[in-house]
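Reading a protein record of the kind used here takes little practice once its layout is understood. An example of such a record is reproduced below.
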Amino acid sequence: MLHRRILSLWFPRLGAERAMRAERGGITGPLAVACEVSNTQVISALNAAALAEGLQAGQPLRDAHAMCAALVVRPRNRAAEAAFLAALRRWAGKFSPWVAEAEEDGLVLDISGCAHLFGGEAALMEAAGTDCAEMGLSVQMGLADTLGAAWALARYAGQEAAPDRSGDAIDQEAPATRARAQKRTPRQSAKRRHWTRGGAAPQVQAVPPQTGRIAEPGQAYAALGPLPVAALRLDGATVAQLNRLGLRRIGDLLGQPRAGLARRFGRGLVLRLDQAMGSAPEPVSPARSPDHFAVRLTLPDPIGLMEDLLAGIDRMLPRLCARLEARGRGLRSLRLEAHRCDQAMEAVAVGLARATRDPARIRPLLEMKLEQIDAGYGIDMLRLEALQTEAIHDRTPAGHAEAGAAARARQEGRQENAAALEDLIGRLGARLGLEAITRYHPAESHIPEKTFTVQAAAWSEPASGEWPRSPRPRPLLLWRPELVHAPDVPQLPGRFRWRGQDWELAHAEGPERIAPEWWLEDPEWRSGVRDYWVVATACGTRLWLFFAHGGALSRGWFCHGSFA
């Protein structure tokens, strides 16, 4: 019977070494990666030079600076570390197809039936260590029959269980605890023979020194017995409580009655013990590889004409859309690669306002970009790759009312108009960029310039319903308040000067008082409370003036917009 063999890879300095790789050799001294924990900067990872200075992970950053004045600090980037670990997961696929991430700084590989391809388990681990060294990464490995045992060997192999306290009484705690636990009647011993049901624990033998971090098949007990109880992936409170009772090694737990452990420490301790020893299953669940959609067309003879490129696109695009439809996805961005005979490559990318898999809607966007491709001495291969996709769900009306509304929408042509608008946005985006095409959405605010939000048209839906009407008229054009030369009094002036021109008042409506949002610090509203007036001048221009009563800035008259 084939034993499961699990290899655990632990990168204890992942955050620091990732930062060093990003700096491309710019950091040579001690480096610490810090993150904020309870409003305190705490070290999350260190490089080898910082560890040599006596620093430790979890140490406050202020204490670390006091110990090492030359310490270089970088903020922790959890997203970048997760992406780096995902890249390491793909690298580990060379050793086994069954790879999963373990927490934030480790990998787990099920290498059952794979070790012989590399010359044995020790040779496989040596190859993995060599690769990590070439990548500038520190790694510790553990190999066992179970995931829990491999995890424990990778992180705690070679460590001795140190007592939390000192004294003569501590030396007697563990023997006394074991002596009390072993006081059972002969009838109970006959009933409970297996150690998982309260019987005698298996004999723990010393680990041969040559095995190191490799537990031979069926030798999990011998490998884990000398390790501290923290190797069972227990929380700190449980580890501290076990240490106070003198149960500092995993071998000490094997001799205890399981019912008593479960009553005192919960079922989590018993479950972790069973998982490490193989009594409870703990499968390795590898991450699913992301969907990748791409097609290519190899040409027998080089091409360079626009018609030939379009003919190649017409052959590839339906195949790509068929693959997308099979997975329920739609395109948001697409790249066309044209590989030339001189080993050069020309590429163009297009974006779509809405996810789609209709070749008729994608082809015109690619046709607009073909003029940017330099064919050179000829193109011998074309490739289409979906850069970004989204799920497209089929929508089915739920009842008669929804079905009638959908039918009326089709009759009125609203769906066709929406599709035409999306195609227009896509065409304009191919020329100007999708981020340059925006639309306005209403927002609830009494501040004039905050009554709407600007959103990218390609990444937002149109505003539903009618635009909310303001109780008072608002100008057609708004700009930043501009100074108006007029008497510094709240009374509306008959004549004023603005933009280097004299204006005469003909008619005015107001005032409308608008106060700033006191709970927000807005630099544009440091002038305090404003009184707005709709002013019609003698030449027919209608302006929106206000008098600022003064706050952090001096008071006076300003022009904020124009109605026509």
In short: The CA atoms of residues 329 and 392 lie 5 Å apart. The chain has 17 helices and 19 strands. Residues 178-192, 201-212 have pLDDT under 50 and may be disordered.
